[in-house]
Recover the amino acids of this structure.
């Protein structure tokens, strides 16, 4: 994994669940402290994206509409074309998160532990968080 000082562009994939996105917000604060010069992008579905709009720690927000099927995937791909993150944190457990993770262009893709993902999502990550005892969602995200 690359040293924190080398991260210039970081992408967070946490698409759905307003509560999950709220639990993910402390991650923005941690990132701002750890790598203050990093540009942070977040990909979310329409409703959770409303929570993120205007957040001072966020440089870019992409809205993904997976319910639009292949049209939603292609639209996201078009919007994210040319994006090259250094690291992507995919903290979503379902397959729909694979698309923005790959479209981020990041060579380092960090995902949830194997036991916390479904649908083969783990196969699209270069690094997985370690499994461990039960934790609150927010604590898993902060890991």
């Amino acid at each position: 994994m690359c040293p924190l000082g080398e991260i210039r562009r970081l992408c967070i994939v946490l698409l759905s669940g307003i509560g999950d996105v709220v639990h993910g917000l402390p991650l923005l604060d941690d990132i701002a402290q750890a790598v203050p010069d990093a540009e942070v992008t977040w990909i979310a579905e329409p409703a959770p994206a409303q929570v993120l709009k205007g957040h001072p720690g966020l440089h870019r927000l992409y809205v993904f509409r997976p319910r639009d099927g292949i049209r939603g995937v292609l639209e996201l791909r078009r919007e994210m074309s040319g994006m090259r993150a250094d690291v992507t944190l995919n903290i979503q457990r379902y397959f729909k998160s694979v698309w923005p993770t790959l479209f981020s262009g990041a060579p380092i893709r960090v995902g949830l532990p194997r036991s916390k993902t479904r649908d083969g999502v783990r196969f699209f990550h270069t690094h997985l968080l370690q499994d461990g005892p039960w934790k609150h969602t927010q604590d898993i995200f902060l890991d």
Remarks:
- The first helix runs from residue 18 to 34.
